[in-house]
Amino acid sequence: YPATCKAGFCHYTRWDVAQNTLKELAYQYGGKAPAFSNPALRFGLLTFNNDGVVNAGIVSSPPSLKSALSTIVPGGGTRYTSAFLAARQHLQAVLGLDGKRSSYLLFITDGKPNEGCAGALQIVKELNTGTGAYRLQTPDGTIHRVRTYVIGFGSSLDGSAKSCLNQLAAA
For residue 88, which phi and psi values (nearest 5 degrees)? Predict the structure, then answer.
């Protein structure tokens, strides 16, 4: 929730807004308490301060996701390629749990990629189209396409970072 509140006025950081939004989504669509069974959506959380790290795997309950969000401190590098590689690896690992569900990737950032855009763009294109080395495939050979949604926020993104985010969103 808010980072600082004084005299009834609260200042929310970009991270506060992202956290609160993700928590609300998880609780709204992640199943009914107390068991959170049969969720409309299954959530996972991966951060990419330096390397892509799965903080809460897919099929995490809303309380697990909330707990994972509460321990994350933003900072470090902004490695888009590392994030998408880790997301693809995790999605491939859990695909066998329920290969019938659609998969979506929500990518939220306030920084420009440290290593450029080309690597991340290639991964996103192949996940979305179901082609190339980064496609997801079930053991029976079914190709599983992953739609990616991109949210960039903050005023510190330069033209190349905005262009990269637009390319990722259009891939």
Answer: -60, -45
Per-residue pLDDT tens for 103-121? 788 888 877 788 889 999 9
Which DSSP string do the residues of the chain spell out, in sequence order?
A: --SEEETTEEE--HHHHHHHHHHHHHHHHS-BTTTTBS-SS-EEEEE-SSS-EEEEEEEE-HHHHHHHHHH----S---HHHHHHHHHHHHHHHGGG-TTS-EEEEEEESS--TT-SHHHHHHHHHHHHT-STT-EE-TT--EE-EEEEEEE-SS---HHHHHHHHHHHH-
CA 98 to chain centre: 19
At residue 64, φ and ψ (nearest 5 deg) are -65, -40
- 10 Å CB burial of residue 47 (0-12, 13-18, 19+) is buried
Paired tokens of 157: 């993104």
Q: What percent of the chain has pLDDT over 90?
A: 8
Burial 124-158, CB ≥16 within 10 A → b, else e: bbbbbeeeeebbbeeeeeeebebebebebeeeebe
